[in-house]
Amino acid sequence: MTGIEHPTPLSQISQFEKQNNTISVNIFGYEEGEIYPLYITKKTFCHHVNMLNLKENNKSHYILINNFSRFLSRTKKYREEHLFCYLCLQGFTDKCKLERHKADCGKFDFQKITLPKEGEDLEFKEYAKTARIAFVIYADFECLTRKVDTCHPNPNMSSTTTY
Fold this sequence. Notes:
Layout: H1 13-19, E1 23-31, E2 34-39, E3 47-56, E4 59-65, H2 68-75, E5 83-84, E6 91-92, H3 95-105
Parallel strand pairs: 1-3
Antiparallel strand pairs: 1-2, 3-4, 5-6
């Protein structure tokens, strides 16, 4: 803990991990009924700890999360325990799905997902981030189809016409 303040600010968590190279730490925040990542470790070591950072006024307090899956299952109102991605807090029912998700999610830094409230309109405003396309082709391939010769369908039954 040499050179690290008490209580430890988020900016010094990586320093703590470097000085204690067998301990990895994830820190999550809680605000207005939502949990979101504040600090996610780059490497998971044999002693991994998940902490919840609660803030009130100018004071903060760390709370140990013993079972991360159970903790988020209750806050996200899942009926059974799920495996969660630390970066986006998305829940998965099996480990294979989580590992496939981590391959894509790991390309980005951790994030807080904010969905619009029910009835709220969405509008795209980031036109500067769009890509200009040199040309566009619209093709209607249905005009090239030909009917296949078959017997006439029974009008009393549903049928499919093959092309």
